[in-house]
Amino acid sequence: MVMRSISRNNNERISFEESDNDDAERDYRELPSIQNPENSEEIVVEDFIQNLEALNDGSDRSCADCSKARRVEDMRSLQKGQHIAMPGEHSSHYFKFLRKRISAYRHHGIVERIVQASRQTAEVTLIHFYKEDNVIKVRKQTKTYNLTYDELYIIEYQYPRYNPDTIIQRAESVLEQSENGDLFESYNLLTQNCEHFATWCVLGKKVSLQVHTRFNNIMQMLRNSFAGAQLFLKKLVHFFRKIPSVLTKVAAPPVLLGLSSVAYIIYCIFKTVYLIKQYRNDKTICWHCLKEKILDLWLQCGAFAVTSVISYVIITFALPLIGLIVTGIGIEIGLLLIFLASIAGQSITLPLQIPLTIGVVLGGALLNWVVPRIRKALWSPVQHSEKTITSLSALNVGDVVSLTYYGLTHLVVVSEVTWNNNTEQGTVRGIHYSLHGLLDTIEIAEEDFPVDLGSSKLNLVEFNTLFTYSPEEVVNRARKRIGERKWKMSSNRSEHLCRWAKVRLDHNSEDIGQLDDEDTGNIHSTNLSSLMVGKSDVHLMNEIQLGDVVEYGSYKGIVIQLEDVTDGRVFFMHTVIRKSCFQYYGEKVKLRIDLNKDYLNVHRYHPVHCVSRSERVRKAIGMIGEKIQRWTQTGFVEDIILKQR
Question: Which residues cross the membrane (predicted)?
Fold first, then answer.
């Protein structure tokens, strides 16, 4: 028998154990097989996704849709060849009561050179669309940026096509207009804007996620307005009832319903074909994003069909009937009047019809808004590629695998692999959110999964383009969460556990201290940048630092002391909070945190606006027992963490 595992001794130290086949290489099939459709437990959406698997060719490609915008917290993280973004110069405004800068759009460019940089300021040469002498064209411009005023984002691509040097060469080639002719000779908001230019340099394809988002918003507005359009059309038909009957029938709401549904289905078909072309021929979208977009498209189509039919029935029959019943007419007589009115080409209008119609429109809009968000919550947070395993010798401890669990796709952290002479049969031991019965508590456990690759499918989840922990660290991190009972469909299931254990996420957790005001040139911005960077869930005590702002239940305050009890999962946290008792004052509370069942968040603020964490601790301790003028917890926290300006 061959076994690969990571075991822990009494001192909780991790060691490797492996026998035979040390040099076994990963063995994959080029094309993953389609899951057996005879499984009666498969749901419709899962079948739809599995049928798309035939398109997955596993080849390298670029993708803009899975790119992420990371806020710059230290100017020294800027590098040449990066795609950066910032709030639009003519559309942004800083709202003091929110301490947030809001803009209608973001401006994009390519970093050609870093002239000089410190933690807070940098002189950067950008290649981007820039307006000069009332002409917008691609130019090279050197500017000084200060994080106090400039809110910069690095666009991080999971699948870039070109390296930084090639990206700069492509950007400069547009300036020289040598090999690309007039590719970006003129600016066009919809087809050739600053984001199109930046993505073309990185991916080789012009893409603007901002334009796509605006277009999708318009499509959603059109879908949501269908119920109101039916009522308007009924009025219009009634007003022009003397028009020949053929035109009246064409304009009737049932025909409108049919035509709009057919038009939307045709749009979905063309959009699906376009996305598949992007994937197969242009190679400008990854497999994960292709599935996500197609699924979203057809879920919204289904939601539109359902809401359209319901709104038609309600507006044409239910609302007039309700109105007649309210006025004292019985159900039978009401139905007869509605039937006779429809035969005569008339409509029954009552005072209640307008507000109830507005309710139908808002209800349909809510459903169309909720459906894609539910899909996104249920979708795997791990944007990854998968390879089908044909031999258990291809698996190593610390890998993440995808298997079928209760009829659904499920991710597991591999902690041990065993097999006999036949490498297609054996056991995979994994750490995951486990459910033993419908009435049992869902909790993280380490369990054995019998595997027969001849009759079931096992996929290796690849994280090639991400920074990952070593295999020992992956298993150790996952094992520390064994016993956790905080399963949430939308934010904390097995997929989230695997990503947290495997991928190094940039939380900028080091105490970089207070960023002093600096100046390396002329500052072009006048608005302040946003204070808040984000917040993250805490899974281990070492993810918290003294001086952090934490939120635990109704408590929100500054951490001044930590006492570990059980391996970083159970600990005492001393926090200074705002207390109300006839008047507001600072109070120190000692909280016992059990991360197996308690939810704890750390709020992250931009260091350019804040004092150092050690200074926060000093100021928080000084507030204990002192009167506080602030009425809110947020105001109390800001008084401690913000620099005086």
Answer: 255-276, 297-315, 321-340, 352-371
DSSP state of 75: G
Residue by residue, DSSP assigns 256-302 as HHHHHHHHHHHHHHHHHHHHHHIIIII--S-HHHHHHHHHHHHHHHH
Angle CA 168–172–175, to nearest 5: 155
The span from the CA of 393 to the CA of 161, in Å, is: 32
Please report the pLDDT score of residue 527 as a whole number: 82
**From CA 82, how far away is CA 112, in angstroms rounded?**
8
- Report the DSSP pairing between strands 68-71 and 443-452: unpaired
Which 3 state secondary structure label does DSSP give 148?
coil
**CA-based nearest residue to 320, from 340, 298, 294, 290:** 340
- How far are the Cα atoms of 299, 310, 362 from residue 365, in angstroms, in the given order? 14, 13, 5
How many Cβ atoms are within 10 Å of 56's Cβ, its own excluded?
Answer: 17
Q: For the chain, how far is it from start to end, CA to CA, in angstroms?
A: 68
Low-confidence ranges of the chain (pLDDT < 50): 9-43, 178-180, 242-251, 326, 343-346, 348, 507-512, 520-521
Q: How far apart are CA 191 and CA 344, in angstroms?
A: 50
H-helix or E-strand spanning residue 172 = helix 164-176
Q: Hey, which residues does 135 pair with through a beta bridge?
A: 132
Residue 393 DSSP label: G
Token reading at 450: 């019998």
In angstroms, what is the C-alpha Rg of the chain? 30
Cα–Cα distance measured from residue 404 to residue 457, given in angstroms and rounded to the nearest whole number: 8
Single-letter amino acid, residue 430: G
pLDDT at residue 329, rounded to an integer: 55
Quote the CA–CA distance of 525 and 88 in Å, as a whole number.
Answer: 11
Region class of 444: left (phi > 0), else alpha (psi between -120 and 50), else beta: beta
526 neighbors 581 (Cβ within 8 angstroms) = no
- Report the residue count for the chain: 645
* Separation between Cα atoms, residue 197 and residue 128, nearest integer Å: 7
Phi, psi dihedral angles at 621 (to 5 degrees): -60, -35
Q: What are the residues whose beta carbons fall under 8 Å from the beta carbon of 82, sequence distance 6 or more?
A: 110, 111, 154, 155, 164
Cβ-Cβ contacts under 8 Å for 519 (sequence gap 6 or more): 121, 146
Give me the phi and psi of 78, to 5 degrees please: -70, 140
Residue matched to tokens 């012009």: 206
Distances from the Cα of 485 to the Cα of 38, 176, 538, angstroms: 33, 60, 14
Note the pLDDT of residue 317: 63
In contact, 475 and 6? CB cutoff 8 Å: yes
Q: Which backbone phi and psi does 580 adopt, to 5 degrees?
A: -115, 120
Q: What distance in Å separates the CA atoms of residue 325 and residue 327, rounded to the nearest whole number?
A: 5
> CA-to-CA distance for 536 and 22, rounded, in angstroms?
39
Q: Cβ distance 187 to 129 under 8 Å?
A: yes
Tokens of 174: 């547009």
pLDDT for residue 16: 38
- State the Cα–Cα distance between residues 77 and 510, nearest whole angstrom: 14
* Amino acid symbol at 65: D
Secondary structure element (H or E) that encloses residue 496, with its range = helix 494-502
pLDDT (0 to 100) of residue 456 = 87
Sheet holding 121-132, edge to edge: 68-71, 153-156, 83-87, 106-117, 121-132, 135-146
Q: Is the pTM of this model over 0.90?
A: no
* SS3 category, 112: strand
